[in-house]
Amino acid sequence: MNKNNTNLYADISIEEIRNIQAYFKKVENQPDIQQASSMTAYLWQNMSRNQRCAMVLRDGQISELSINIKQGIGEIMYTHKSQGIQTVNEHFDCYPMDAMVIVQEGVIVHEAYKTMRPFDKHNWFSCGKTIVSILIGLLVDEGKINLEDVVTDYLAELSQSVWESVRVQDILDMTTGLDSTEHDDILDDSRTNPDRGWFQWAVSMGIFPNDNNQQSVVSEVLRKMKRTKPAGEVFEYNSINTWVLEMMVEQVSGKPLAEFLSEKIWRNIGAQADAYVSVNPDGYPMSFGFMSSTLRDFARYGLMFSPSWNKVSSQKIVPDDYIRRLQVSGNLERYAKGFIGKEMLGMLDESAITNSNQWDAVFSDGDFYKQGVGGQGLYVSPSRDLVIAWFCTGGNDELTMARAIALSSEINQRTR
After folding, report:
1. Where is the secretion signal located (predicted)?
2. C-alpha span between 390 and 102 (Å, rounded)
3. Per-residue b/e over 375-414, b at no fewer than 16 CB within 10 Å?
């Protein structure tokens, strides 16, 4: 285990910090927060210096995870898509990984820190989409949401729009068939073209600058969206879907998302520290891309989805039905038709992969994975009682490495 006692960015000068903040204060530079760079390397570990944040409060005794480091895990070999055969240790050393932890049967078997300390927080980016997925799942389990209902059964402000035809399950699976996608527009310019619906949504949320006096009311932007194909046909990745689910969580629970998350999860997993979720200028939550926590708390969160949930919680948080739906409700055909599905299939020598309930990849053996901008990742294998969590400042085929770890003899000899 490599545990740094220093943070690469903790000792930079106050002048440099102010220069970073001045750069991102300029509206034209704000979209760059999603790009890995020397400046975002600092900000991704200090998002509260750049964005408004709502605290996700912990409570109770910390769930101390046992440690039994297996040196062989660092020597597991896999084939990197562009660099050939590498070991886990070589990957961690050579690429801009900030920290990684592997937990099996509730025990830490591998842990490494490079640019951050164990108590530092790091942004999850889109791994935060799984938060909304499980919160919706909890509301389903409580009988407060029906997955066959349409979105407007819960969000009246979207009534008399195309959202009246979108089921909750379709939006969870990112198979709505609507326009304004994030990566699947033919011209692939959703993040740069002010005429695109996704760009206009990002402006209305305060993520992108409003240089062209775009429509600034988020509900009105969503009401302009159109159907381009039947629902359920194509996995079209879109943070708009997650944000609409966030609004459903707040509407149905009657609580801010950060408080509901704290009540249902963070105060019940023995988290070592408070987390925080960014909110936009209007106070709307943005867990679709901006959730920050320590690495071990990220792993504790992952353990909720594993058989070792009782190592962090006195009560089972994730319903069995949620895991079942996640593992069996995907569709192989729709996966390969979308940008992200093709990207995942291009990384791995496997074809039986689907997406489901905001998770990016569900494998035939029941493992599931979520990635975030810049290389963040959470990999859960219920059958192996395994959780792998990592933070990066620039992704470099970490999924391939995680999958190789899950399939390795070093891991599977413990589950025979």
Report:
1. none
2. 9
3. bbbbbbbbebbbbbbbbbbbbbbbbbbbbbbbbbebbeee
- For the question of whether the overall pTM of this predicted structure is more than 0.90, the answer is yes
**Closest to 322 in 3D by CA, of 309, 336, 335:** 309
Answer for the pair 264, 152: CB distance below 8 angstroms, yes or no: no
pLDDT score, position 6 = 62
Buried b (16+ CB within 10 A) or exposed e, 291-312: bbbbbbbbbbbbbbbbebbebb
Q: Note the pLDDT tens digit of each residue in 319-358.
A: 999 999 999 999 999 999 999 999 899 889 888 999 999 9
**Residue 168: predicted pLDDT:** 98
Residues 6+ apart with CB under 8 A from 200: 180, 194, 214, 215, 221, 224
- Distance separating alpha carbons of residues 278 and 186, to the nearest angstrom: 31
> How many CA atoms within 13 Å lie on the side-chain side of 212?
11
**How far is 293 from 413, CA to CA, in rounded Å?**
31
Beta pairing class for 107-113 and 66-67 = parallel
Distance in angstroms (rounded) separating the CA atoms of residues 187 and 371: 24
**Secondary structure element (H or E) that encloses residue 156, with its range:** none
Buried b (16+ CB within 10 A) or exposed e, 31-69: bebeebbebbbbbbbbbeebbbbbebbbeeeebebeeee
Q: How many CB atoms are closer than 10 A to CB 316?
A: 10
Residue spans of the chain under pLDDT 50: 1, 415-416
How many Cβ atoms sit within 10 Å of the Cβ of residue 164? Answer: 12
Q: Which fold has domain 66-126+294-412?
A: Beta-lactamase (3.40.710)
What single-letter amino acid sits at 228?
Answer: T
